[in-house]
Write a structure and sequence with these properties.
With 63 residues, the protein is mostly helical.
């Protein structure tokens, strides 16, 4: 399954698709969730939340 299909499934609130997208970006979110050398769980959770919000709001029409 490609990213585009995963994205559209996530937009329809497919929990499996949402989790796969979160897992794709997990290493990047973890990298940026370190503040002063310490992992900030709240910041990580905010990243996850923002990804889910962006999936719903991203203006993209399937052709």
């Amino acid at each position: 399954m490609g990213f585009e299909e995963l994205f559209f499934r996530a937009r329809k609130e497919d929990k499996e698709a949402m989790m796969k997208i979160i897992e794709m970006y997990r290493p990047l979110m973890i990298k940026y969730a370190f503040v002063d050398g310490k992992f900030d769980e709240d910041l990580y959770q905010e990243f996850v939340y923002r990804i889910l919000v962006c999936i719903k709001k991203f203006p993209y029409n399937k052709k």
